[in-house]
Amino acid sequence: MHISEGALSAPVLIAGTAAAFLGTAIGLKKLDYDQIPRVSVLSATFFVASMIHLPVGVSSVHLILNGLMGLLLGWASFPAILVALFLQAVLFQFGGLTTLGVNTVIMAAPAVFCYYLFSAGARRTGVLLSAIFGFAAGALAVLISSLLVGVALVFTARGLEKPALVIVMVHIPVMVVEGFVTATVVSFLRTVRPEVLEAPYAKPQF
Prior knowledge:
Elements: H1 10-30, H2 36-51, E1 53-56, E2 59-62, H3 66-73, H4 77-92, H5 100-124, H6 127-156, H7 161-170, H8 172-192
Antiparallel strand pairs: 1-2
């Protein structure tokens, strides 16, 4: 899902950086000190999971876990993913610094979207329905991320429609895997630690 350096146009990079800055600012504003350990653990989990990847053109295929991060962190997914991507770029040259903003938006924006769409259902229903909401969050987050990669490529230059479509298609198996992983984690937490699924903030603040 990481887009490599040199693949995107300057306007796309600038727009992605601005959006990532805004999302991270909102995430930090909403972040409580009590959340920091949770954010750190999930950021580290994202770091490790996404390092195991297969290159696909200017992008790559790997686990993201942004649906799970969205359910547990909400807007705090932005700073969590930003830090992990920065360390990957600096330590392993995975992704890149110029594409850091775009890559952050690609993976964090779907996490926030899935938080608003599925978090209430995941924490207020029984274990089975929580698992279903978890599966939906995990799968949909990957789908949206792959579509955002395609959008970034299409807005960069003509002729990239087919590579964008390929990226979406190869992520279909990842959607299924992430759906089951997120469903398993959510159902487990719903059974043994339901308080972990509580909303990271009581109501949206903009």
